[in-house]
Amino acid sequence: MTSAPVLHESKSSPNSRRVRMFIAEKGISIPVQPVDLGAKEQFSDAYRAINPRSQVPALALADGPVIAEVLAIWRYLEETYPDTPLLGTTPQSKALVTMWERRAELDGFAPVMEGVRNAAAGLKDRALSGPHDYKQIPELVERSKQRVANFFNDFNERLATVRYVAGDAFSAADITTLATVDFAANALKMPIPESHDALRRWYDEVSARPSAKA
Amino acid sequence: MTSAPVLHESKSSPNSRRVRMFIAEKGISIPVQPVDLGAKEQFSDAYRAINPRSQVPALALADGPVIAEVLAIWRYLEETYPDTPLLGTTPQSKALVTMWERRAELDGFAPVMEGVRNAAAGLKDRALSGPHDYKQIPELVERSKQRVANFFNDFNERLATVRYVAGDAFSAADITTLATVDFAANALKMPIPESHDALRRWYDEVSARPSAKA
After folding, report:
1. Which of A102, A188, A190, B82 is most solvent-facing, going by the fewest CB within 10 Å?
2. pLDDT tens across A31-76, in order?
3. Which residues cross the membrane (chains A, B) (predicted)?
4. Which ipTM score applies to this complex?
5. Where are the domains of chain B?
């Protein structure tokens, strides 16, 4: 018998939300240990002993290592709890979920994060999360907004041809896209443009799922 | 019977190398269609019909869609040719390979690419690959070099405690790390520092594998 893993995460962290939604869609229950980012708890010695990179989320296995990085936590959960697959079911669909999830992250989620971190007054030397300090580059704020606008256009076009981001089935690609859309609206004040009918249709459907509240 | 997929790729593309090495480690053979990046063939109508994002590599399935993005091509190949696993074998090792491969990519490979693309005279409006144009940001060149130096430090520390990047077994995390080290040496003139014994020990071992020449 192994005891359960523990998820270290924060309600205010969009990356943590990607894992909470994944867990909610699976219908499983994982004990949670909140990390108070407002109080900079991620830089405490206690948290660095769990994740030396001072990032959330992180999944501490009961009798094994700590798994950090959203994609790695997802993979662990998908392999351990295979019911309600969210990373695809065939070689082809697993590849397509990987491809579309990655595009949502690199073209959408990462630019929102870049725009936020390079603008926030409290993050002058913390333009990138992780163990190293980097100064903000103000030019990146404007470029990030251009990238988010292009992401909205590209995903509106995609979702005019398919029900869900990776095709016929709800998947982790939808989770990252939903987290991106809400993060852009809240943190960059960039909601989905009114004219983007397909993206709005998809958003209404996906954000009505119970997991969206996780 | 399905016919074989075709890999569209370029000998000069470090991302293509990540797929070639994966294929070589598997000991499989995939037909290759070269894309001449020097002649800008990736922007031709013919290639855009294969990958509208004008990126290599891309794996065109014989009776299915085109799979783009290195991680997606890897996942397809791992599922289709499970012998010689390169993405882990247990839930825990699959998660750890995902985590370390991602760190190699986001902390190493991506900064080298960012440093190269923001400096190259021929890429003034092409600072990011993909379907959209973005202007170069000169400040990113210096920051990228700082990030690569930190990557060398972090991975030297990691490889002082393990044989391979993700642990005891050679994996896709080693492929991305090797592609990063060679890309940094060639394109940014940043070889592994002399003092980094553990990273050099690992490099000597991994670059002697036949797949390193792929």
Report:
1. B82
2. 999 999 999 999 999 999 999 999 999 999 998 899 999 999 999 9
3. none
4. 0.97
5. 6-80, 91-213
Asked if B91 and A76 come within 8 Å (Cβ–Cβ), the reply is yes
Inter-chain touch B76–A94, beta carbons under 8 Å: yes
Single-letter code of the amino acid located at B31 = P
Q: Is A68 on the interface with B (CB under 8 A)?
A: yes
The residues pairing with A68 across neighbouring beta strands, listed in sequence order, are A58
Fold of A91-213: Glutathione S-transferase Yfyf (Class Pi); Chain A, domain 2 (1.20.1050)
Measured between CB atoms, does A126 come within 8 Å of chain B?
no
Residues B179, B17 contacting (CB under 8 angstroms):
yes
CATH superfamily of A6-80: Glutaredoxin (3.40.30.10)
Q: In CATH terms, are B6-80 and B91-213 the same topology?
A: no
Helix/strand/coil for A182 = helix
- Comparing CA positions, the residue from A191, A151, A187 lying closest to residue B134 is A151
pLDDT digits (tens, 9 = 90+) for B121-170: 999 999 999 999 999 999 999 999 999 999 999 999 999 999 999 999 99
Indicate whether A174 pLDDT > 80: yes
Q: From the list B75, B103, B137, which residue is nearest A95 (CB)?
A: B75
Choosing among B99, B107, B139, which should be mutated to test the A contact, i.e. which has the most A CBs within 10 A?
B99
Cα(A32)–Cα(A29) distance, rounded to whole angstroms? 9
Tokens of B184: 């940094």
